[in-house]
Structure formats: C-alpha cells, structure tokens
Amino acid sequence: METGKLPSELLEKYIFSKSKKSSVRQKEVVVRPNIGEDCSILDLGNELLILSTDPITGACENIGKLLVNINANDVYSSGCLPIGLLITLLLPTDITEEMLKKISDDLFNAAEKAGLEILGGHTEITDAVVRPVVSATVVGKSLNRRYIKTSGAMPGQDVVMTKYAALEGTSILVCDNEDKLKSLLPSAVFERAKALSEMLSVKTEGLIGAEHGASSMHDVTEGGILGACYEIAEASGVGIDVYADKIPILDETRQICELFHVDPLRLISSGSMLIASFDGEGLVKKLEMAGVKGTIIGKITEGEKKIISGNSCTPLGEPEADMIYKAYLDRKNQ
Fold first, then answer.
1. Packing angle of the helix pair 167-176, 63-76 (nearest 10 deg)
2. Cα(221)–Cα(229) distance, rounded to whole angstroms?
3. The Cα angle at residue 257 between residues 252 and 263, in degrees rounded to 5
4. Alpha-carbon distance 80 to 219, whole Å?
5. Residue whose C-alpha is closest to residue 235's, from 7, 19, 33, 14
6. Sequence-separated (6 or more) residues with CB below 8 Å from residue 317
7. Is 283 strand, coil or helix?
8. What percent of the chain is helix, strand and coil (3-state, nearest 5)?
9. Are 297 and 220 in contact (CB under 8 A)?
10. From the CB of residue 197, how many other CB atoms can be counted at a distance below 10 Å?
C-alpha cells in the first residue's frame, strides 16, 4: 500500500462499517467516525467533550510544534476550544538525550504558547521505529454546547479557504532540508519559508467561522487543499466546484515545491482551514479584519466533485498519498 492515509474505500470496509454495525453504542456519543470528520464529540450533560487524535510521521524537525498545532486545529475546526493533550512518543534505539531534550522542549514550548496542558501519555524506546514517531490525543470542550461538523456543507454555500496552500508542507520541507535549500534559495525566500511554522494554528478562523454561522469547517492536513475539499464534499454527501486558479499560494511555497517536484495543492497544509458558508464574502471580511487572509475558492453544489481551472473542468478524486511522502522518498533516494 502507498504511504499516507488509508484510502476511503478501505477505511469504510475495515473501520467505519464495523463501527456502524457495533452493538456498543454509548448514549453520550453525538458525533462518530466518518470520512473527513475531525473530531468525536461526547455529551456529558453539562458540557460537550471534544476528542481527536493525530500523529506526526512526515517530518523530522519541529515535530513537537507540529504535533500541538495539528491536534489543536481539529478542535478549532469544530468551533470549540482545546484543553490539553495526551502524548505518545515512540523513539528509536539510537535516540540521544540531546535529541530527546529538543523534542521535549519543542513540545512543551508549543503547548504553553497554545495555552494547552500536557495531560499525560506514554514514552517508549523501541526498535519498531527508525526515527521519532509522535502522536497525540487532544481533549477539548464546546462553547455554549455548540459544535460544527465537517459533514454540514450544503449546496449553494461558498467554500472559504484561510491563509495559503501548503503552509505546513513548506515548513517541513525547509526545516528538514536547511543545508540543501540555503544554497538553492535567495536568503529572503529561505527565511520567509522558515517563518511559516508560526502560522500553523487555525484558532482565529475557527472561532470566527463558528460565530459567523458556518455549517462545515475542516482543517487542511494530509492531501492538501484538494484533499480537504474532497473530504468536505464526501462527508456531507454533496458536490463541490473548486476554483483551482483562485487558491492562494505563496511564492516561497511555489519555489520549494518546484525544487522537490511536488504539487502544492496536494501537499499537507495545516494552518489553513476550509469553511462552508452562505455568506462567503462577509466571512472573508471578518477574517481579514482579524488579520487572517480569506479567499473564496469554491462552491458547494448538488452535482459532482470538480476542479475548475481556466476553461478546463476535471473530476476531483479521492486524495492519494500526500506529496510530503513523495518528497521524503526523493530525499531518501538522493
């Protein structure tokens, strides 16, 4: 099988179908697993508990910062607030104390900056991995018992994208390949690309989207912008027109993606969120007043999933393995 997320067909066959048939259905569970859904949600009476989990497998540097942000972003995409994280660290047998300190410092510094508490977890040295593998489960709570699902998109809504495509992917590629890229990129481009690691949270847009009345929000991770568009449509049982030419891409991202021969629209993109709203223009204005770039990049429809670019129209298929894995394999084979 290809590296990356398990294809939707296999997820449905081996995971979701079994979940749907399970005789165990806890009354507290109000949002269950589904394609594209970022979180599970439990009703505990006075409060809604938000849960999600994600690993970092496609990066070597800044894995603590990446882990904190991508997990917190799942909760923000529900219009809710994260509280803390349970962390699992699987470390190779050649790990040094210096490397462990770097991961630990990165993790706790990022958590403190995000206002999240490290609640516990598990740390293990194992020969099952050849480089550090980190995973987290995030715990969050709702605001006034409200939440937003990925599966709430409706025909006629605008699809608003925040920030730029491939922020996380650009950050990973530049931080994992500093020595190589320093000699290939103008210094200003290199420094701007490194700074993108500070743009990976979607807290502001998550709270604004919820306040604006969005019916669907989804943070953009593996599969990039096009993958996230597919997941919103698939989860909601609707069609989508994606205006590829309107998707904003930073110059530094274009240059780095060209060097690694990867498509920025299919590159992991934490830091960007997709929001479905009947008032896309009003949402864009609210976002920009808060200092967050917003762009209408598509429309929810009753038809098929499509990519529109210039005068051409092509089907938007299920996302394949993220481009970060292609870049990683290319680096490994060089």
1. 170
2. 11
3. 125
4. 13
5. 33
6. 230, 305
7. helix
8. 40, 25, 35
9. no
10. 21
For residue 171, give the amino acid letter: S
Instruction: Write out the H or E segment, with its range, that includes residue 174.
Output: helix 167-176
Query: Tokens 């953009």 identify what position?
Result: 220
Q: Which amino acid is at 249?
A: I
> What is the pTM for the complete model shown?
0.90
Considering the domain delimited by 26-141, tell me its CATH architecture: 2-Layer Sandwich (3.30)
Rounded to 5 degrees, what are φ and ψ at 47? Answer: -145, 150
β-sheet bridge partners, residue 124: 90
Of the candidates 164, 153, 166, 163, the residue with the CA atom closest to the CA atom of residue 299: 153
Q: How far is CA 254 from the centre of its chain?
A: 19
Average pLDDT for residues 252-264, to the nearest whole number? Answer: 95
Burial of 111 from C-beta contacts in 10 A (0-12 / 13-18 / 19+): buried
Mean pLDDT value of segment 50-56: 93
Domain boundaries, the chain: 26-141, 150-333
**CA 114/CA 56 separation, integer angstroms:** 18
The CATH code that applies to domain 150-333 is: 3.90.650.10
pLDDT in tens, 63-121: 899 999 999 999 999 999 999 999 999 999 999 999 999 999 999 999 999 999 999 99
Question: If you search the block for the tokens 């970092």, which residue do you land on?
Answer: 56
The β-bridge partners of 135 are 55, 88
Cα within 13 Å of Cα(256), Cβ side: 35
Quote the tokens at residue 180: 């190589």
The vertex-49 CA angle with 300 and 81, nearest 5°, equals: 65
Tokens of 283: 């949402």
